[in-house]
């Protein structure tokens, strides 16, 4: 049972955006929902802002259902204030300004969060920026550093350089001493990525990215690739991956199937791996949060790590936010502001 917190009065109902049926952005509709109550070990957050991520679009289309037990509302990251504690949660959590990775339910005025998935919002960070950080930070940290074993002095190739994921990858690569090459679909996006700190940006529509990476690295290839395309990118990725290089796949926008030359993989001792964050256990996400808190969050606290913001939409305009993401016009993060 949730503990009584008379100092913070909570309404019974809240505004939320729900997926009325699988389909286009217009299926996102403003609704009234009961304010959820935290179970043991959970906290309730009054959401200030929620980040929009590509997986939310996939959930809206009906191809990426929420994992068992998660809210049916979209939204994988929030920033806000802790307003109620479930049984067993340290009372010191109440009133904290946090940002968090959530299993769903972010597109709402109140959201259930696990305290171990939170990071404290630094005093001088705006809540809209804090809301834009968890999903890409957890994803990039885990895939580039924990799975891809990237270390300073290495060369990282990131597809989708101006995506939410890509802009976070550029920032972390800069902070952790990696050379970062990105691909983007237009010259404007390439220029934007270079402004954000990419050492090289390749327009994948006008240039062969694999050949360009080999040129840039003087034939050696890159050490780690963060790939969100798969399909026919896989062999082209391997063709520009250095000996002992690691290819980490986080999405299959180019297709789920790839044919690769296994003898080349053996000759260059490549590793191919990949992961999806959302279905991972609470314990796993807590361990990533711990490492982020230790290794990365001090940089955010010093103002050295900030998200690249694209645009903030009011919650009621969530459909417009999804339409913008799907039009591919954005550079960086799209965020929703709660009423
Ligand atoms: N596995 C995980 O745990 C996890 C977690 C979060 C996100 N993701 C995935 O990561 C991707 C990025 O997420 P996001 O929220 O940052 O989305 P986003 O901002 O909408 O970015 C999507 C990006 O994909 C790029 N892209 C699409 N097709 C491409 C192609 N054929 N070649 C090169 N680039 C291509 C686009 O680049 P241009 O616009 O320049 O063409 C765009 O920058 C999504 O696919 C998402 O599903 C995975």
Short description:
This protein is α/β, with parallel strands linked by helices. It has helices at 54-61, 127-131, 134-147, 164-175, 187-196, 209-216, 233-239, 262-268, 282-295, 297-301, 318-327; strands spanning 13-19, 28-34, 43-52, 77-85, 97-101, 110-113, 118-120, 155-159, 179-184, 200-203, 222-227, 241-249, 271-274, 309-314, 333-337. The two termini are 28 Å apart.
CATH 4th-level superfamily of the largest domain:
Medium-chain alcohol dehydrogenases, catalytic domain
Kindly name the structural category. alpha/beta
Secondary structure tally, helices: 11
Number of domains: 2
The shape is: globular
Distance between the termini: 28 Å
Summarize the structure in words:
Pfam families: ADH_N (PF08240), ADH_zinc_N_2 (PF13602). This is NAD(P)H quinone oxidoreductase. Keywords: NADP, Oxidoreductase. It comes from Aurantiacibacter atlanticus. InterPro entries: ADH-like_N (IPR013154), ER (IPR020843), GroES-like_sf (IPR011032), NAD(P)-bd_dom_sf (IPR036291), Quinone_OxRdtase_PIG3 (IPR014189). The chain is of the alpha/beta class. It has 2 domains: 13-133 and 278-337, Alpha-Beta Complex (Quinone Oxidoreductase, Chain A, domain 1); 136-274, Rossmann fold (3-Layer(aba) Sandwich). It contains 11 helices and 15 strands. It has helices spanning 54-61, 127-131, 134-147, 164-175, 187-196, 209-216, 233-239, 262-268, 282-295, 297-301, 318-327, and strands spanning 13-19, 28-34, 43-52, 77-85, 97-101, 110-113, 118-120, 155-159, 179-184, 200-203, 222-227, 241-249, 271-274, 309-314, 333-337. Strands 3, 4, 5, 6, 7, 14 and 15 form a 7-stranded mixed β-sheet that branches. It has a 6-stranded parallel β-sheet with strand order 10-9-8-11-12-13, with helices on both faces. The protein has a two-stranded antiparallel sheet with strand order 1-2. The chain is globular. The model has no long low-confidence stretch (mean pLDDT 96). NADP nicotinamide-adenine-dinucleotide phosphate binds at residues 53-55, 135, 139, 159-160, 162-166, 183-185, 189, 204, 228-229, 250-251, 253-254, 275-277, 325, 328.
